């Protein structure tokens, strides 16, 4: 299909969520995402 999109909100299972320190700059935190 080759389809992609962006979303403001998403629903995930609690087992797939990691809390990130709010003091980490966004450009560093994004390296830990998908």
TrEMBL record:
Query: Which GO biological process categories is it annotated with?
Result: formaldehyde catabolic process
Q: Does the keyword Metal-binding apply?
A: yes
Q: Which UniProt keywords apply?
A: Metal-binding, Zinc
Q: Does the keyword Zinc apply?
A: yes
Instruction: Enumerate the SUPFAM superfamilies for this protein.
Output: GroES-like (SSF50129)
Q: What domain of life does the native source organism fall in?
A: Eukaryota
GO MF terms held by the record = S-(hydroxymethyl)glutathione dehydrogenase [NAD(P)+] activity; zinc ion binding
- Give the CC-aspect GO terms: cytosol
Please give the InterPro entries that the UniProt record associates with this protein.
GroES-like_sf
Subunit-structure text = Homodimer.
Q: What is this protein called?
A: Alcohol dehydrogenase-like 7-like
């Amino acid at each position: 299909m080759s389809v992609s999109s962006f979303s403001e909100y998403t629903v995930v299972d609690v087992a797939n969520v990691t809390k990130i320190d709010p003091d980490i700059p966004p450009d560093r935190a994004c390296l830990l995402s998908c």
